[in-house]
Structure formats: structure tokens, C-alpha cells
Design a protein that fits this description.
Largest sheet: 9 strands, antiparallel
Number of helices: 6
Radius of gyration: 16 Å
Order of helices and strands: HHHEEEEEHHHEEEE
Length: 210
DNA sequence: ACAATGATTGGCT
DNA sequence: GCCAATCATTGTC
């Protein structure tokens, strides 16, 4: 039932301690890690290539800035929790909660490189099957696209990342500081000067190359 | 109760 | 490059 690729992912699941540390550090260390989801129609895997850090009461752009509410409640849970929210009424964004419980910090996963279950990702996106290189680059190159391709919505908000069918895994890949670009975050108006966006410099799968 | 807002995307010019 | 879509949450009246 499990493919060799899936078997190789066993015991590579990131422990909750991975997330329970400095948020910008986690944002950088998540580059090269794998997002793995097993749903009805098979296993999906992608390598994270772009992230953004959001802090708590010191970061005006963060949903946690004004303290806990019904929407951001899961953002105040302990590191290793998933925080999913709806943006612009249409798209969902996937965040991994970091730090200790109550700090209200998280990392937004903005883009990824498709690895497994690519046909299903196209189906989830509502796109015709297309294996052209150009199309593949546009499959997961944005937070809303990523969530849709993985079938993630508000129902996943607040789950912990230690599940068999939903986890982050170590792909044995690590990027050095020189390989990681650092810029301001995309789409925000407050705290727009903070350089909390990180992406793999030479990756074709990021949402923007600058 | 109600109006404004937004960590985006896709389609059209 | 510009702009509409679409809705849960939030702040204000």
C-alpha cells in the first residue's frame, strides 16, 4: 500500500520541539522540509520553499497582535499546531504555530515544490492535468494555491502536526544562509518594514523571486 | 446590527 | 498592470 517514497518518510516526522523555538529560525529551517498530507485520494507531498514569520504582540501585521480571538485561537496554542484561516473570502492560508503556548507566533507557508500526488494536486486546484514545467511552477506558488491543492480549509484549523495523515517531515535537505533570501512580507500594510519573508533563492517554485 | 477589512488569486486589458 | 470576487472576523455605532 505504501510506496517506497512514503516508507522513506517514516520516522522523519518533525517533533513538536522543532516548532517550539524562535519563530524566524523556524521559518528558515522549514525551507526544504516536506508537507505531507494523506487524504481520501492518496498521499500528497511537497517541499516548502517560501515562508513568512508572524510574531505576537510585537508585530502589528500578525493576527495575534491584538490578542486572542475566536479566529486566531489556535495561533496561541503550543508550537506544532496548525493555524488555518480564510483570506479575502476565497482562499485559505496554512500556518504552523511556533514557540510556547500563549506567545501567538506562527509561520505562514507560502509556496512549495510538488513532489508526490501531483495529479491529485491539479484536481484539487480544479485545473486540467498538465505536466508542463511552466504549469508545475504555478501549482503551489502561493499560500492560497498551496492550501487548495492540499485540500486544506477551516476544518483543519487547530489540529496538531503529529498525525499520520498530516505532518511535516524531514526530507534530508538543508539550505545554508547563503541559499536563503530574506525580504519584507507580501501583501501586508502594517509592520511592512520587517524582513520576515524567507525563500530558497534558486527555486522556481516560489511566489516571487524578489 | 452594520460596514470595513484582508498574510490572495485569476481573468482581462 | 489593474481589478473584481467573496466572506468570516472584527471594530464601531
Amino acid at each position: 500500500m505504501n510506496s517506497p517514497a512514503q516508507n522513506s518518510l517514516r520516522n522523519k516526522t518533525l517533533a513538536s520541539t522543532f516548532f517550539q523555538k524562535n519563530t524566524t529560525r523556524v521559518a528558515k529551517e522549514l525551507l526544504g522540509k516536506g508537507l505531507f498530507v494523506r487524504a481520501k485520494h492518496g498521499a500528497l507531498l511537497a517541499e516548502i520553499v517560501e515562508t513568512e514569520a508572524y510574531l505576537g504582540d510585537e508585530d502589528a501585521a500578525s493576527h495575534a497582535f491584538r490578542g486572542p480571538t475566536k479566529r486566531n485561537a489556535s495561533m496561541f496554542k503550543s508550537g506544532g499546531t496548525l493555524y488555518v484561516y480564510l483570506i479575502y473570502g476565497i482562499n485559505h492560508c496554512i500556518n504552523v504555530v511556533t514557540g510556547v503556548e500563549g506567545s501567538g507566533e506562527a509561520v505562514l507557508i507560502r509556496a512549495a515544490k510538488p513532489l508526490l500526488g501531483i495529479e491529485q494536486m491539479y484536481k484539487n486546484r480544479g485545473l486540467p492535468l498538465d505536466n508542463s514545467v511552466k504549469s508545475l511552477k504555478n501549482l503551489l506558488n502561493g499560500p492560497g494555491k498551496l492550501a487548495k491543492a492540499f485540500g486544506i480549509d477551516l476544518q483543519h484549523d487547530g489540529i496538531t502536526l503529529d498525525r499520520k495523515d498530516f505532518r511535516l517531515v524531514d526530507l534530508g535537505k538543508k539550505y545554508t544562509p547563503k541559499q536563503i533570501a530574506k525580504t519584507t512580507r507580501i501583501g501586508i500594510t502594517k509592520a511592512a518594514d520587517l524582513h520576515f519573508r524567507f525563500f530558497v533563492k534558486d527555486s522556481e517554485f516560489v511566489s516571487r523571486r524578489a
